Amino acid sequence: MELTGAQILWQSLKDEGVDTVFGYPGGAVIDFYDALVNYDIRHILVRHEQGAVHAADGYARASGKVGVCVATSGPGATNTVTGIATAYMDSIPMVVITGQVPTSLIGNDAFQEVDIVGITRPCTKHNYLVKDITKLERIIKEAFYIARSGRPGPVLVDIPKDVTNSRTLYKGIKDIQMESYNPTYYPNTKQVAKVVGLIKQAKKPIIFAGGGVVLSKGSEALTHLARRANIPVTASLMGLGAFPGTDEKLWLGMLGMHGTYRANMAISDCDLMLAIGVRFDDRVTGKTDEFANQATIVHVDIDPTSIHKNVTVDVPVVGDCRLTLEALNQLLDAEDPEEIGPERREWLGQIQKWKDTNPLKYDQQNCETIKPQYVVEKLFEITKGDAIISTEVGQNQMWAAQYYHFSKPNQWLTSGGLGTMGYGFPAAIGAQMAFPDKLVVDVAGDGSIQMNIQEMATAVQNKLPVKIVILNNQYLGMVRQWQELFYKKNYSQTDMTHAPDFVKLAEAYGAAGFRATRPDEVEAVLKKGIETPGPVIMEFMVSREECVYPMVPAGAPITNMLLV
Amino acid sequence: MNGDKSILSILVDNEPGVLSRITGLFSGRGYNIESLSVAETMEPGISRITMITRGDKPIVEQIKKQLNKLINVIKVLDFTEQRHVLRELALIKVHARSENRAEVLRIVDIFRCKIVDSGPEHYTLEVAADEDKLSALLNMLQPMGIKEIARTGSIALVREMH
Ligand SMILES: Cc1ncc(C[n+]2csc(CCOP(=O)(O)OP(=O)(O)O)c2C)c(N)n1
User: Fold this and answer.
1) pTM
2) Thiamine pyrophosphate enzyme central domain location, by residue (chain A) (predicted)?
3) Which terminus of chain B is less hemmed in, N or C, by CB atoms within 10 Å?
């Protein structure tokens, strides 16, 4: 069948099972949009290309499928970069299609020409410039294969206009094999057996779960392992939801800079750490020399470059997290339960003591203004922990991580690696596209929400009932917190009092807006906001100078915690 | 740069942009490239990059893993600990007036170089050698006055065991 390049693109996407694409048109992709009408694929017209990429990212995180977005050449393409880098840092499977000037003009500084392949080389898993239409089909196939396999990541395909509108035979390629790309999925069996031996011997083991567990769909296996072997679990920001956050006995809460006291203490005291699908980010380890220096460290990761990168590991296991966990479970299930860690009681008791002495806390009762933590805690209660939560970046993100307890994977969408303000709202739009019937809430700061607020129009146009909870402290709160603690309260350029009236803003876009200024209004506003159909902004005027605690100063050992 | 020298031989797809992926990886992660040379292998579509890099052991391990992770990299071989032959090609233009022409020719003979261009005032020598031999040669030629040098990076292959 002879098709144009534009038709090949859509046909390839259909063959990959893609049903939703986020994008923004322009001269270089106008042929794509022209051809789109004949394909049964939903296209969400965003208001900024950064929004398209984050939406594709949110779609991918919530659904576990590959997110797809389209942008035109030049400025359209450069607008995607922050979103691509965000997805790259968090290993999110994504295919980004950009238009390019005709091949005959490439390199001539043509109108709306930019070397997007060059620009995105360091922040994509791989990228392509399609110079020949006969390669287009295969390249798109490869792009999806690379994006979703191994350690997932974004792949960009840049397609010149003449490739888009010339014709060639569409073959319907089924399978892709690439000589130079063969991720290792199955762990080495000897290493797995060794890990089981260590689990049996350990007196003070701990599991440290990361985004890799979520990405590999390994959380069930992880939960089984932890419960079977009675091992407490902590997680990185990206690992939240990999283990039930409501498990009173084994769940320690998040680890690291804003981790819980018991998680950070337990890591520093443990004799065995099973680090699964983590990359030992500096926000987690603090000072690496003193990170878990009592422990034998087992590190499971599908990406060999993660191992030994930041932390020296005793037992490296290269493999898919889920498959590795299942292999461990298989051996452990054959053991006598009595023999797996008979001495864990003391360890769990010690952990309980840490929890009792320094739980996460805030005091709403004796405060006349709204505590941001209280808003998140109420949101958790009202939604019964069942919503998909995206966040912006800053204090709002940390409070959401601390006070919304995630019990399922793919329920927590946050820019962990890059820390991208403006991520949460478009990501929520993407998640809502994937799950039209679920409640999707973006927990936002007043600063961050202004970075992609234009996507209100996208939400309204597509009738996406995304809810935005703005914790308005009238500051770039997290930066202000650092200024308070480490820069003698020199609040240079962090005051955000000059902001739009968010309630009116919502209304201007055709959405609904509600505001709470007193603690006794919080519950009612949350309930009303959630019940109101369509997109809603709920603005909470919170205590301006509230800080996120606990906190470990950057670069300090993680036991060096500033507590409330 | 600290650490030992490593000799990496990297087989890659011969495609535009592959070299910049590799050099970009090095600049982006703060690794060091001491020398680099690239050409196609016998197999069409596959090129061999010979790279000399420096770093302590964990860094070099990380470099190898990061290289392997690039989609266009087919294989990363480390020749450092293996018996290998290593050569670099140099063209050296040296001053050669009547009083020292004989001396230059003697050096050419000792080092088994070739004269590839000559004029009343100069000779241009071609030499393929490892780094030690090259620097010895340059030392010998120094007194004559070296006008210009062009050097390729090193290339290497593992020695076959007999
Ligand atoms: C795009 C981008 N620019 C700057 C930053 C640096 N930054 C991190 S947190 C923060 C403050 C965020 O303020 P706000 O959105 O109001 O959230 P709050 O911390 O008050 O909850 C800033 C500016 C960032 N993470 N991302």
Assistant:
1) 0.96
2) 192-328
3) C
